[in-house]
Amino acid sequence: MSELSVNHLLGIKYLNKKDIDLIFETADHFKEVINRPIKKVPSLRDITIANLFFENSTRTRLSFELAEKRLSADVINFSAASSSVKKGETLIDTVNNILSMKVDMVVMRHPNPGAGVFLSKHVDASIVNAGDGAHEHPTQALLDSYSIRERLGEVAGKKVVIVGDILHSRVALSNIFALKLQGAEVKVCGPKTLIPKYIEKLGVEVETNLRKALEWCDIANMLRVQNERMEISYFPSTREYTQQFGVNKKLLDSLNKEIVIMHPGPINRGVEITSDVADSDQAIILDQVQNGVAVRMAVIYLLASKIKR
Description:
With about 300 residues, the chain is of the alpha/beta class.
């Protein structure tokens, strides 16, 4: 059996193309499982997984929890808001206390970039990064690529534009790494203030005109503006942002082709996309959510198979 080249999923930048192919093949198998009447497999009956969320999350946390339970793992959930972290406990102490309960794998979301990498060097468990600050969100990028492959047959050669708040987005960075690794062409589009200075070093072009970007692409991945990560104002007003970078049905229908619309959620309806776009046949937003469970099952299963018993 093939296995992953890594013992942790800390970021897409640590994976190779074979890793992504293996995750997708495994996810295909699990997608069949979750569409059966009995949606569980006993694959990880002897594995205990801790979900550590130091930042708010709905979809990612529920998706991981569901993936773990579908694999029959034992699951413990930890929310920093109601924990001893509030009393000043360090990250390593928190995790070591949890690991002493014989936990095999930790799925962690943390506001600090690199928290997962730091943890992987100090604790004896497999770490899955569920988002670290504005750095990476590897499972989101994997499920996005998986959804593109499902809708369009393959990722290689496709033109993908990522629109919106690139500066604060871990989804954008992980997507750029994943798409480039699989041979897609990538552009980013958004206000200049929300595009990082280093972006072209990643082999990505910048397009500030939304219409031109949409006419070029096969897929548009629409990101929300992350107001919670902004200490200053990056554009004059939400209304002005929507006028320049929001996608509505009229704009989509005026293009000379049909493009696929994606969104990692949560959607700010009426800001980056209107409801008639979000709910249209061109959008694969709910497919992304469904595929997220299969892809996360694949990641957890493949990492668990590398844990030394």
